Amino acid sequence: MPSRSACRYDLLAVDLDGTLLDRRDRIPARNREALHRAHESGVRVVLCTGRAYAETRPVLRELGLDLDAAVTVFGALVTDVRTERPLAATPMDADTGRAVAEVFLAHGYPPVWLSDGANGVDGFEFEAPRRHAGYALWRAWSACRIESRPTPLPGDLPPPLRISIIGEHDSLAEVAGSLRTQVGDRIVFNELRVPSARVTVLEAFAAGVNKWTGIRRLCNAWGIDPQRTVAIGDEVNDVDMLRSAGLGVAMGNARPEVQSAARVVTASNEECGVAQLVERVLSGEI
Fold first, then answer.
1. For residue 11, with 0-12 CB atoms within 10 Å meaning exposed, 13-18 middle and 19 or more buried, which class applies?
2. Which of helix, strand or coil describes residue 74?
3. Which of the pair, 261 or 120, is modelled with greater confidence?
């Protein structure tokens, strides 16, 4: 078992798309081996992603580690990996969720209402005229169990962890402006690339949600000093955790604003930047 004597950190939070995973949506062998070494040394490895838990499950299986918890849905859901039961969830309230969905529908976009997976359903989709071609790609790729519902919005929907739409960047910027004006004080939202599904997504969450809030929940539960954490990512939805972790690390393929939020920049996901970072952390170099 590797020695912990040189390592100054107790928790490693790792983003998936554009970070741990390569462009084929797989874990390179070098990255997998590095996370196994970190786990064996006593560092808590936590996958921390914007994906739904159902979309994270295949990565957990491929990684092959006996992990304790995963932070998914941008921090809105923290799950016990062994039992697959939620440890914490932060959904929008029903009124806010409906207001967000109505903004999307008013712009002609069909919203996807993601819930917690209870009763065998991960979420709900609604019809609208501006269904982007990328939506079919996401549906073909995603492991989420999505049920179609009619509009107007029914009254029996569960509280949403996330409501999202897929579209082109310029059009989504207009929708984001409406979100900011109409419900901006009740939500947070991101516009980001999803390389594995080859789409751009505008997604809304309850106010206060981000990946770092999920990591902090685990630090509190496990008695870990938040300054003894490492977080690594590549997208705008990683910025909060990179700024807040004891060591924030951006990928070489990350956007400039993400790299500027980090203390360290590692190699790209195609160059196994996660493995290179883990090797430096375990050796005590950083």
1. buried
2. helix
3. 261
Cβ distance 104 to 113 under 8 Å? no
Q: What is the mean pLDDT of the chain?
A: 94
Distance CA 214, CA 185 (A): 21
> Helix or strand or coil: residue 88?
strand
CA atoms within 13 A on the CB side of 56: 26
CA 182 to chain centroid, in Å, comes to 25
Q: What is the pLDDT of residues 169-218, one digit of tens each?
A: 888 999 999 999 999 999 999 998 765 556 789 999 999 999 999 999 99
Query: 113 pLDDT exceeds 70?
Result: yes
CATH class of the region 94-206: alpha beta
Residues 6+ apart with CB under 8 A from 36: 64, 65
> Cβ(249)–Cβ(265) under 8 Å?
yes
Beta bridge partners of 189: 204
CATH 3.40.50.1000 location in the chain: 11-90+210-283
Q: Count Cα atoms within 13 angstroms, Cβ side, for 173.
A: 2
Domain topology for 11-90+210-283: Rossmann fold (3.40.50)
